[in-house]
From TrEMBL:
It comes from Pendulispora albinea. Pfam families: Esterase. Signal peptide: none annotated. InterPro entries: AB_hydrolase_fold, Esterase-like, Mycobacterial_A85_antigen. This is Esterase family protein. Gene3D superfamilies: alpha/beta hydrolase (3.40.50.1820).
Length: 304
């Protein structure tokens, strides 16, 4: 049984295509879209950063950079917490930052075998993509990056949709959802936000196959050939932390996961740059720094 069998999505169905019901300028080059999504059975948001020449060069199609946030944030995170607008100001790239719920895990939820919403994977990769190509002159050249839960999303999407993305980056990513006690932690996190933890991918043992077909570590062989950037701190206070910052147990945990994942990628011969940079917590200053490091690679891959 493939993931499409429980995708709450109706992928490819044209009778009820997604629609932009509102477009709100937020700042120079920054636009918020409200999209009526069939995959979600709801209206939700996507933030765009337009290329500087978007309006002046009306015939051009633009390469795309998807940016995914982590738990337990929202689609405004990248522009609120980083200098991504300034970083992309002189680059011909369309930046896309979609809503994904606080604990959506970039997946079409299993819902105990019933399928149905939320279909985040379909929303991002079918509905948003079609809107970008139809109305915002997006090209077929795409890169993707994310942090924490979004690092999972970036690598899971690349593995599950071969050829859709030309490069990917994960910062402090939860990139092995079956690592040690991670299944229990993820289920507790989902439950803490009022969601049914078994509705996401089912029980980690009874529905192990669903966990596996979403998990980047289980799908590592499908990442071969795609340029990757993988980074993580070790959880100890680092140069971008305030004085007296205690150790960060989340980054300690994800560091162990990223160390093992990096070994696996290298063993398989992946095209990967790994930056396990030592001291650093699970916080935005490090992710902004890592975005600056990964950015040239991501842009080269999509010709931006």
């Amino acid at each position: 049984m493939s993931h499409e069998a429980y995708a709450g999505a109706d992928e490819g169905e044209e009778a009820f295509p997604p629609a932009v019901v509102d477009e709100q300028p937020i700042a120079p080059r920054i636009v918020d879209l409200t999209i009526d999504s069939r995959a979600l059975r709801a209206r939700t948001k996507v933030r765009l950063i337009l290329p500087k020449r978007f309006y002046a060069d009306a015939r051009r199609r633009w390469p795309v950079l998807y940016l995914l946030y982590g738990c337990c944030d929202d689609y405004t995170a990248w522009t609120r917490e980083t200098d991504i607008a300034a970083l992309t100001a002189n680059t011909d790239v369309l930046v896309v930052m979609p809503e994904a719920d606080r604990v959506g895990w970039y997946s079409n939820w299993w819902n105990h075998g019933r399928g149905g919403p939320p279909g985040w994977e379909t929303f991002h990769l079918t509905e948003v993509r079609s809107i970008l190509e139809r109305s915002y002159r997006a090209s077929g050249r795409r890169a993707i990056a994310g942090l924490s839960m979004g690092g999972f999303g970036a690598l899971s999407y690349v593995a599950r949709h071969p050829g859709m993305f030309s490069a990917a980056a994960s910062f402090s990513g939860v990139i092995d959802t079956r690592f040690r006690d991670t299944p229990k932690l993820l289920q507790e996190l989902v439950a803490a936000h009022g969601r049914d933890p078994l509705a996401l991918w089912g029980d980690p043992k009874k529905q192990e196959w669903i966990w596996r077909v979403h998990n980047p570590a289980d799908l590592a062989f499908l990442l071969l050939g795609t340029p990757l950037y993988i980074s993580c701190g070790n959880g100890k206070a680092g140069p971008l932390d305030p004085p007296g910052q205690p150790d960060d147990p989340n980054e300690v945990r994800w560091n162990a996961m990223n160390v093992e994942f990096a070994k696996k990628l290298r063993f398989l011969g992946a095209n990967v740059r790994v930056n396990l940079y030592g001291p650093g917590t699970h916080t935005w200053p490090y992710w902004q720094r890592e975005m600056h490091i990964a950015f040239p690679m991501l842009m080269r891959a999509i010709g931006a």
